[in-house]
Design a protein that fits this description.
7 helices, about 150 residues
Length: about 150
Amino acid sequence: MKLNIIAFLFFGMVAFGQTLNELRSNYTKAVNDKSVCEQMIKQLENNHKTPLYQAYLGAYQTIWANHVINPISKLNTFKKGKNNLENAIQLDQNLVEIRFLRYSIQKNAPQFLGYSKQLNEDETFLRNHLKNVQSPELSNAIKSILK
């Protein structure tokens, strides 16, 4: 019984890590690849129990707005993603990766959407906490967007 619990925890953590790596690596791809974006959203809709996964769901949903043709659907999709991202930040505002996601969305969102109020706050937060980031991929992504 004890071995089953240890195996479950180990494989659960491996799966979590693989999924997180997949979310990170597909994040920039999703901007230009509709199928990648759609795949990530479907995967996250069933697994957004943590604030980080909810933030990724929101970020992918805002990106999905680029792939939608109907203007009303674009706006609704963007708002849905924005709400998921903001809810995730409310749950864990000190997680660097969540703040990176919001910063990257706000930095790239069209001005008329009015989603840029936390740009300076998030940029300062990211600069102050970059040294604490363990993932080389995440660290490089943050460095590249802060340039």
